[in-house]
Amino acid sequence: MAPAKVNKKAKKEQKLFIIDCTLPVQDKILDINGFEKFLQQRIKVNGKVGNLGDKVKILVDGEKIQVESTAPISKRYMKYLTKKFLKKKNIRDWLRVIATTPTTYELRYFNINQDEEEDEVAE
Questions:
Q1: Are the CB atoms for 109 and 23 separated by under 8 Å?
Q2: Single pTM value for the model
Q3: Which of 54, 68, 78, 123 lies deepest, with the highest CB count within 10 Å?
Q4: Residue 109, CA distances (Å) to 4, 35, 66, 120 in order
């Protein structure tokens, strides 16, 4: 007897990425709506820019951006796009992107005060 054919369908895995922009938005350094538009224009789906369709949804929840995707998008790609936006707005020198949980990135300021304290101790 021949083995029975098993119909294996790839499970559509829904991924949720959160980018927390609380500090820069409160300080009015970052425009959250501009960041949302940037992501909508730049996220690639199946190798094409602006091809979001029903596969990728971008939501603004207060000072956080949620990216829901059924298409294969990596967390690293979200970090890359966030850094690209910060560089475009010339605020990459003051902000950094930090992973706080396996699905969340947070924008934080570089800790410049620590360097100043070390200089004072050295003198």
A1: yes
A2: 0.78
A3: 78
A4: 58, 17, 21, 21
